[in-house]
Write a structure and sequence with these properties.
The chain is mostly helical. The chain has six helices and two strands, in the order ααββαααα.
C-alpha cells in the first residue's frame, strides 16, 4: 500500500512548485534592482571615480544576492518547504520534492518511488493537469526585459570604459604619460587579447569626446 494518495501527493507538489516560483520571482526582482542600480551608477554618479572599496561593495552586493539565492534554493529551501507540505519519504525521511535542489516530484509520480531510497510511496502514472511543469516557459515580457537589460549592459559597459579612459588621460601631462594611458586595459572586456582592449582604441575612435 503506497504511503501517499496520488491526488493528495499531486496537490502538495503543486503547492510546493507555486512557492518555488514565488521565491524565484522575488529573487529575480532583487537581482534586476541591484543590476539596474549598478548601471545607473555608471551614468549618473561617475562610478569609475568611486573608491575601490565602494565599487567592491556594489559588485559584492550583486554577487551576494545571486550566490545567496543559489545556495538557499539548492541546499536550504527545498528541504524545509518539503517538510511543511508533507512531501517527505516515510521510510528514509528525505525530501520527495527535490534532491540537491533539482525537482523530483514528477519522477516520483512517474515511478511511484522515493528518489533517495527507492521505496514505493505513491501509485505510479502520468501526472494530472493539476501539477504545473517544474520549469515553465518564460513569458515574452520576461524575455524582452532580459534582451533590454543585456543591451543596456553593453552600452553601459562602453560608457564605463570611456569614463575610465578619460580618467587616465586627465592626468597625462607628457607624451610618456599619454603613452602609458594608451596602454591601460579597458575595465570591461579589456583583459582579452582581442583588438580594442586598451584606451588607445577608444581615443583613436574619438569615443572619449563629450562628457568630462
Amino acid at each position: 500500500m503506497p504511503a501517499f494518495d496520488r491526488k493528495d501527493f499531486e496537490a502538495r507538489y503543486a503547492d510546493l512548485l507555486l512557492r518555488a516560483r514565488r521565491l524565484w520571482r522575488i529573487t529575480l526582482t532583487l537581482l534586476v534592482v541591484v543590476w539596474v542600480a549598478l548601471l545607473s551608477a555608471v551614468w549618473l554618479f561617475s562610478f569609475v571615480r568611486w573608491p575601490a572599496w565602494a565599487r567592491g561593495v556594489a559588485f559584492g552586493l550583486f554577487g551576494l544576492v545571486f550566490v545567496g539565492w543559489a545556495v538557499a534554493h539548492s541546499l536550504v529551501w527545498w528541504g524545509p518547504v518539503a517538510r511543511q507540505v508533507g512531501l517527505v519519504c516515510p521510510f528514509c525521511r528525505k525530501s520527495l520534492a527535490a534532491v540537491r535542489g533539482r525537482p523530483t516530484g514528477l519522477r516520483v509520480l512517474a515511478t511511484g518511488k522515493c528518489p533517495s531510497c527507492g521505496a514505493a510511496v505513491v501509485e505510479p502514472g502520468a501526472p494530472s493537469a493539476i501539477v504545473p511543469p517544474s520549469r515553465p516557459r518564460p513569458s515574452p515580457f520576461a524575455a524582452l526585459g532580459l534582451v533590454l537589460l543585456v543591451a543596456a549592459s553593453v552600452v553601459t559597459g562602453r560608457r564605463l570604459n570611456a569614463d575610465y579612459c578619460r580618467l587616465q588621460y586627465a592626468g597625462a601631462l607628457t607624451a610618456a604619460d599619454t603613452a602609458h594611458a594608451d596602454s591601460v586595459a579597458l575595465p570591461v572586456n579589456g583583459r582579452s587579447r582581442t583588438p580594442g582592449g586598451t584606451c588607445v582604441n577608444y581615443r583613436h575612435a574619438r569615443l572619449l569626446e563629450g562628457r568630462r
